[in-house]
Amino acid sequence: MLTIVVIVIHVAVSLLLVGMVLLHSGKGGGLSEMFGGGLGQAAAGSTVAERNLDRATIACAVCFCFTTIILAIRLQ
After folding, report:
1. How far is Cα 27 from Cα 16, in angstroms, rounded to an integer?
2. Above pLDDT 90, what percent of the chain?
3. Measuring CA to CA, which residue among 26, 34, 23, 30 is closest to residue 57?
4. Is the pLDDT of residue 16 over 60?
5. Taking residues 15-38, what's their average pLDDT?
6. What's the pLDDT score for residue 47?
7. Stretch 19-25: mean pLDDT, rounded?
8. Neighbouring residues of 51: CB distance < 8 A, sequence distance ≥ 6
9. CA distance 30 to 32
10. pLDDT on residue 52
11. DSSP state of 69
């Protein structure tokens, strides 16, 4: 039963992680440009939204790593 719960969490976190990575800015503007940050924000550095997205992505990645390790141990 625990394995099924961890697999469901793992799949949900992996989909969320893919979505968060796609929201990050590449060479273009990314999230800040999508919501109207544009040229004025480019000179100021990263916005609050992008920093929060970075933190959420890191938290999601850590959760993904933990569920991967738990599944590796459980399915041995």
Report:
1. 22
2. 57
3. 23
4. yes
5. 75
6. 83
7. 87
8. none
9. 6
10. 92
11. H
Tokens describing residue 65:
């790593």
User: Taking the CA of residue 37 as centre, how many other CA atoms within 13 Å lie in the half-sphere pointing to its CB?
Assistant: 18
Based on the number of CB atoms within 10 Å of its own CB, is 13 exposed (0-12), middle (13-18) or buried (19 or more)? buried
Distance CA 21, CA 61 (A): 10
Radius of gyration of the chain measured on its C-alpha atoms:
16
What pLDDT score was predicted for residue 6?
Answer: 96
Q: If DSSP states are collapsed to H, E and C, what string results for 6-68?
A: HHHHHHHHHHHHHHHHHHCCCCCCCHHHHCCCHHHHHHHCCCHHHHHHHHHHHHHHHHHHHHH
Q: Using CA atoms, how far apart are residues 53 and 31, in angstroms rounded to an integer? A: 9
Structure tokens at 53: 């997205």
pLDDT digits (tens, 9 = 90+) for 53-62: 999 999 999 9
